[in-house]
Each structure stands twice: as C-alpha cells, then as structure tokens.
Specification:
Layout lengths: L1 H26 L5 E6 L27 E6 L4 E5 L5 H10 L12 E2 L5 H4 L15 E5 L1 H9 L3 H6 L3 E5 L6 E4 L2 E7 L10 E6 L4 E5 L12 H7 L2 E5 L21 H7 L5 H4 L2 E4 L13 H8 L3 E2 L5 E3 L1
Parallel strand pairs: 3-4, 4-5, 5-6, 10-11, 11-12, 12-13
Antiparallel strand pairs: 1-2, 1-14, 2-3, 7-8, 8-9, 9-10
C-alpha cells in the first residue's frame, strides 16, 4: 500500500509539473509582429473624381497604406503612417491588445508629408481624440514643418503630439528587441524628406518603402537591400502606364510593378518570396486578386499585400 501511495504521489508531482510547464508555455509572450492596416495610395478608394468601375462601390477593407506594430512583451503598439483612415486603423490596432488601457498609439512613424501619409494626425487633436504627447517620429525637415505650420503646429502647442527627430540610417530603439531605421529615398519632397524604414525585431527584419521614384534614381541598390531583410513591402502604386490616363507619368514616377518584376527577375525564388507589393492606386488591377495581373505577379514568385496580413518579427 505504501508503495502504491508513493507511486500515486510521485505521479501527481510529475503531472503538476507538466501542467505548470504547459501554463508557462502558453503564458509566454508572443513575438512582436506587423499587421497591414491599409494598402492603397493616398487618395484611397473610391477615389475622388473617379467614375471608373474601380470606384463604383465602397469596400470597407480598402484603406490607405499603413502598418501596425504590436509587441506583446512590452505592451506597446505603433503606427507607420497617419492616414485619413487612422480612426478605423487605430481601432484594429487596439483590438490586437484589448487589455491595454491607453487608446493612443505608443508612437507614429511618418515617411513624408503627402496627404495619405500624415493627414491623419489631425484626428489626434481636440476636435477628435485630443491625445496626450503621442510621439511622432519624423526626419528633421518634416519635424520642422509640423512644428511651424498649422494645423499641425496646434497639435504640438497643445501637446497632442510630441515630435521626435530621426537621423538617416540611425537605429531608433522603441522597445527591448525592437528598433527602426529610416532610409532616405527619392520622391517629390515639397514639404519634407521621404524615407522608408527597416523594422527589426528579435528574429526578422522588414523593409517598408511605400513611396519612391524610379529605382534607378536611388543611390542605394534595392536588390542588395532585399537580400539583407526577411520581407520587403515596396511601392506598387501602378502596375503599368495604362492606368495613368492623361496624367504626365514624369510627375508621378513610381516604379511600375512591371518594371520592378523585370528588375527582380534574376533573383532566386527565395529572394522573390520576400517581395510584397503595396501602396496601390485605385486603378491598380492588383487590388483584384482574380485579375490576370495579380495572377501574373504571384506566378512570378512575388506577393501582394492585403489588409490584416501579419508578419512576425
């Protein structure tokens, strides 16, 4: 009887230890991750002034380009870009971590001063959220622009936002194991510089360049940079010149998806798999996953960004 009781007791100890290990395992914080909150070019969809078939209906999943960054370990959440769709995008970001009390993000990283990328800041003001000291990370020229021009200067004066200067090619540590680096890219810089970002977590690096002029205008080599990261979310504004219509393509010299695929054609399949096109004009056929253009892109080994796509860091 004593032996039996001893065995039962020993079994109970092992069972308790096993169950506790499972609890600890399930309670371990998950890795940080990015979530795509929008994939469209600045004007969104339906696009003002557009009477084409692409803008005849309203799709609630079509949002202007933005990424969310969630870090379960530190409890922090960040936005990349402050778009006109910021209210619904921030709602998605907050739902990812419902236990967090603050509804404001822990920081916003801006790429440049074009309407789809920073206009959402206005909703942090007293007419809407009336946030308190939300860090807004920018390059120096954009920082000065926000601080000295209304309505953005009012956000600074009322402490709705707190501008944080970034330096080219310098890492910004935002949480343990998480850092962000801005890289200057050529673009129409009327009011600010334009940057892309490298976002690095404990395990992976992600390149984010939603806006850039032709790849050949850049002093850096996009092919080499893709080899250094695990995923690359890059400008896919127009699939071809057929979308431009009467506009002068020289005024909007984004790298066409056709051109990018040609540039990356010689990359091995493993490198092509990293490339995810994003920032689509409302006319871009890649917005329709059943289009022949979307099927072509995928057949070549590339990917197309969709809202709610998650990328672990």
């Amino acid at each position: 009887m004593k032996i039996r009781n001893s065995l039962v007791g020993l079994f109970s100890i092992f069972l308790a230890a096993f169950l506790q290990a499972q609890v600890n395992k399930s309670a371990a914080p998950a890795d940080p991750y990015l979530i795509v909150l929008g994939t469209l070019q600045d004007g969104g969809s339906p696009h003002m002034g557009c009477e084409k078939n692409c803008c005849k209906s309203i799709d609630s999943n079509k949002k202007v380009v933005s990424l969310g960054l969630i870090d379960p370990t530190s409890g922090k959440r960040f936005l990349f870009e402050a778009t006109p769709d910021i209210a619904s995008q921030l709602k998605v970001l907050n739902q990812s971590m419902p236990e967090k009390k603050s509804l404001a993000p822990d920081g916003i990283f801006l790429t440049h001063a074009h309407v789809g990328h920073y206009a959402g800041l206005m909703f942090l003001g007293r007419e809407a959220m009336n946030s308190k000291d939300v860090p807004v990370y920018t390059m120096p020229r954009l920082k000065t622009f926000l601080e000295n021009n209304g309505p953005w200067s009012q956000l600074v004066a009322l402490n709705n936002i707190r501008t944080q200067a970034l330096s080219e090619d310098k890492w910004e540590n935002i949480a343990p194991g998480l850092k962000v680096k801005p890289i200057l890219v050529p673009h129409r810089d009327e009011f600010s510089e334009t940057v892309g970002y490298i976002i690095e977590g404990p395990h992976k690096k992600v390149l984010f360049i939603p806006d850039i002029d032709k790849w050949e205008k850049w002093r850096s080599d996009i092919v080499s940079l893709i080899k250094e990261v695990d995923h690359a979310l890059i400008d896919g504004t127009f699939f071809s010149t057929a979308e431009v219509g009467n506009r002068n393509i020289a005024e909007i010299p984004h790298p066409l998806v056709q051109e990018s695929m040609q540039l990356f054609a010689s990359l091995p399949a493993k490198e092509k798999e990293k490339i995810i096109f994003i920032h689509f004009n409302h006319t871009n056929p890649l917005l329709n996953e059943d289009s022949k253009e979307a099927k072509l892109v995928k057949s070549k080994g590339f990917s197309i960004a969709n809202v709610n796509l998650q990328i672990k860091l």
